[in-house]
Amino acid sequence: MNAVLSPSTIDIKKIREQFPVLHQQVNGKPLIYFDNAATNQKPARVIKALTDYYEGYNANIHRGIHTLAEKATKAYEETRHSMQQFINAKHVEEIIFTRGVTESINLVASSYGRAFLKEGDEVIVSGLEHHSNIVPWQMICEEKKAILKVIPVTPIGEMDIDAYRKLLSQRTKVVAVNHASNSLGTINPVKEIIKLAHEVGAVVLIDGAQAAAHLEIDVQDLDCDFYCVSSHKMYGPTGTGILYGKKELLEKMPPYMGGGEMIKDVTFAKTTYNDLPYKFEAGTPNIADVVALNEAIHFINELGKENIASHEDGLLAYTKEKLVAIPKLRLIGTSKNKVSVQSFVIEGIHPFDIGQMLDARGIAVRTGHHCTQPLMDSFGLEGTVRASFAVYNTKEEIDQLIEGLKRITNFMIK
Amino acid sequence: MSIDSIQNEIINEFSLLDGDMEMTVLYVMELGQKLPEMNKADKTEENIVKGCQSKVWLTARIDNEGMRFSADSNTAITKGLVSLLVRIFSGQRPEDVLNADLYFMKKIGMERFIGTQRSNGFASMIKQIKFYALAYKTQMATE
Fold this sequence. Notes:
Strand content of chain A: 15-25%
Structural class of chain B: mainly alpha
Oligomer: heterodimer
Strand order of the largest sheet of chain B: 1-2
Strand content of chain B: 5-15%
Low-confidence stretches of chain B: none
Number of helices of chain B: 6
Order of helices and strands of chain B: HHEEHHHH
């Protein structure tokens, strides 16, 4: 396999063979996994990297001089280099390992926010945000008496960019938005959002949780100040991810946590901090999962994001076409520019009931507010049913979803 | 009919579904559809059972025959589940409700098809029912 495969040459059957978890029955039916926006499944090579690490070279990194420590350190740092290339960061020390997007955002809100936000400053988020890109900003705004502003969402589920322009002012210090929405799939015009924010001197954080497995990410081209990625949403292990930050910003920011690894010298009078990226990696990191994340990056690179996106776009288009034929079904989030996520509701049937019924058929979807309560409120909904796809999903699986939905609709709406 | 007889009846009915998950879910929903409609005035904030993921309203009264429960939910499956409790406990004396040992959930494999969170919600419904029973028992003792 290589990165220049044309979409037609992606062999989904072969890809599926690489995912052990897919080959099982749930409630007596073959598992159909459509909850990929929550977390996607892991190829065997990622799982093998985890066991290889624990069976072959588990050791604490950076300080040991023995062979295992050297090997573990090398593997850990290799992932940092892969991640640098994956998002096209200028410097490798701009990649900081965290537990994932939530921690990355909290790190920036706490460290940057505490150091640079003042009373009356404004932080802008959007109505499309996951709670993890709302709550950390609310917390720091409360602490610093800063003001949180919200970019409204249009009826088709896009950020209202005209309204955003009006929100921007000299008071704006931080803009924090997602690259792609977890609830609706909308791909947001982040390059334009960043450019506009920079015109008023604000820094911009991009939540890339839903983008990493689907979209090309080039942090230098975007010119974002911070970019956050979760490993488990890009075929990697849970519990790790990265914060990318521009070097000059990270250097100015105080540490987020204190402990081992992040220090140069410690005396009771004064501690001097380590250089980037270690300044922000206090304590023994999640070595095994970081090491295995490298395999997930290789998996995506070898398939090619264009090929992945092309396959998933086909699945999304097919799903929409089939869904709209179901009576009383309403699509939520109908932007033309989306990653492979489709939310919907069926009038008269609670999303939980739909989810339960589909689970009985071995189909895993997400139901509820998807950690975006303000967004659901703006649509006047308690929640939706969300089907989200990955590269291993097929049209035949979507046919099964549609069959399940027809069954429950026929039963409930008489 | 005693509480245990009704439980056994339910176990029998579910055994006919032969463990087919889809049939079970549809059957539970159907039970919910048959639940007598709850008085709209009773669907108040304070009659909502705490600890349920879905909204569940539950009220109780008592007459000469025993306790009477009425319930509703915003989700069809939960409505079906609470209908089982209404069926078991309506017409029973408060002390029998209080002393009831519910074994039908385990026998029909309820946790398997409603999951842990809904099972916790179901436990909250039972708790609420027993709370009503305790209140009526205490009231009767002091009258």
